[in-house]
Each structure stands twice: as structure tokens, then as C-alpha cells.
């Protein structure tokens, strides 16, 4: 599918990785040859030291993402997850370039980076919309709102005891869990923490929520997949001690008291991810996670 040719690109990256700084000048030279305007985040500018030897503009606020035709995420999956939350509902397409260890979310490696960038600059790419979770936490004070591309995880925090979780959807009781915690993931997040806890793999083009208990104290409670029109409510009855914790994409943490209520639903927007016509999700599963192999 041919998309419109971009003119403005943003760069978001893990500035702690030496590989990011190694690649930045070459990306800038490539952009100059393509007559593309580069926008850098304030974090990159703060870390760069001397002024870069190329022209650039600065992403000074989240609304500046709207000016961009696409933005590069240079780092690992954590870098891309943080970018997705920063972009939010602004619909800026994201292209992940993998600099980390696993890099399951990144579409591009450093080896094929300029080949893929040339395709994007020519408009030869597609957009895959990925579902986002909206999480409202009522925790004694004003309700807090979070968004997650991967998952919302609730665990026992600093406590050593298992916790009791009551799960309802659209007002209907689903299950009572006695476990180390509960993970609610998107299809994107189904290959992350949820998979490690025994959850199913769900293709990212689907809209659904996966609920996976963490070490449940029973043989009868298994992960379940719910349609995206459900509103999930999680409460914590009969817990004898505090120490509950909530994590958003494994990066944003919040402590919960025993009277807290967590409400999770599909967000009103999706994250726009750049993919290519020859992308095969199952090839990625095989190469990066060993999917379908028999021990060879």
C-alpha cells in the first residue's frame, strides 16, 4: 500500500545506549538527502552536549507530535512503549528501530534500517492500529487515569502474601482470584508479561483484552480473553494487609490501598504503528521467541 510521502520526522530514543548516538548522525545525513526535516526531543537535546552538526527542530511539547509525519523509536521495547504513551491520541505513526536485546515490538533492525527508511520516505508502508487500554484508578484521592499499549499489572507489591482480586465485566461477576496478581493485556501485550504468566498469544490486529492471573492458588483459573466492548472492574476484598501495586506497561508504578478500584476498558484511540507489506507476524514470533520450533 502506498502512503503519502513524509516531510517531517521525529526522533525519540534511549539516550543511555551508545548505539543511539552512533546512529543519530547517519540518520540525520539520510534525512538531509531525502529533504526531510528532523525534530528531536528535549531529552536528546539535553544529552547531546555540543550542538548537533545538522539542522533540526525541537519537540517541545506533546502537541508537537502532531506536526510529524512519523517518528522513529530508537531503542528497545521499553523505549517504544514510553513513546506510545507520550504520543497518546495524536495519531503520529511510530517506526520502531531495535537497539535492545529482544525488540519484539520494533519493526526494523540496524542491519536493514536504511532500506526500511527509504521505503517509508517513498510512502511504501502500511499502518497497523494497535489497541490501547484506558485504566482509571480510584485510590482514595482523585481518580487517576493511565493508558497502556502493553498491559496493566496488579501485584502484591511489597507484601509476601497472595492477594484477593474480584473481577467483574460490565457489572457481571467473572471470577475471584487468590493469586500473586492479575495482568490485563492488549493483544500487543499478549507476548509480554502475560505470555510469561501462561497467557495466550493474540494477534495485534485484533481488539480484545486478555486477563491472566499470576500464580493463582488453584488449578481451575486459567487466562481468559474478553471482547473489547467490556469494561473490567477489579476490587480487592478480604485482604488482610496492604502492599498492593499497579504497573502500567511495566514502567509507571502506583501503590494501591485495599479499598481501591481499578477500571479498565478499551481507549478511544489506537497507536499507529508503521509496518511493511512483507511483514509476517508469525515469522517474528518464530525468529524472536522460537514459536513453532521443536527443539532444533
Spell out the key features of this protein.
296 residues, Tumour Suppressor Smad4, six-stranded parallel beta sheet, six-stranded antiparallel beta sheet, 37% strand
Set down the secondary structure blueprint:
Elements lengths: L7 E6 L4 H16 L3 E5 H7 L8 E3 L10 E6 L1 H11 L6 E5 L9 E2 L3 H9 L4 E13 L5 E5 L2 E5 L7 E7 L2 E8 L1 E5 L7 H4 L11 E7 L9 E4 L4 E4 L8 E5 L3 E5 L4 E15 L5 H9 L7
Parallel strand pairs: 1-2, 1-4, 2-3, 4-5, 5-6
Antiparallel strand pairs: 7-8, 7-18, 9-12, 9-16, 10-11, 10-15, 12-13, 13-14, 15-18, 16-17
Count all strands and give the number. Answer: 18
Mean pLDDT: 91
Approximate strand percentage: 35-45%
Characterize the overall form.
Answer: globular
Query: What's the alpha carbon Rg, rounded to whole Å?
Result: 21 Å
Widest sheet: strand ordering: 3-2-1-4-5-6
Query: Share of helix among residues?
Result: 10-25%
User: CATH homologous superfamily of the largest domain, by name?
Assistant: Probable inorganic polyphosphate/atp-NAD kinase, domain 2
Structural class: alpha/beta
Q: What count of structural domains? A: 2
Element order, helices and strands? EHEHEEHEEHEEEEEEHEEEEEEH
- Poorly predicted ranges: none
CATH topology of the largest domain: Tumour Suppressor Smad4
Reported for the largest beta sheet, the result is: 6 strands, parallel
**Span from first to last CA?**
36 Å
- Helix run count: 6
CATH architecture of the largest domain: Sandwich
Query: Which class of the largest domain in CATH terms?
Result: Mainly Beta
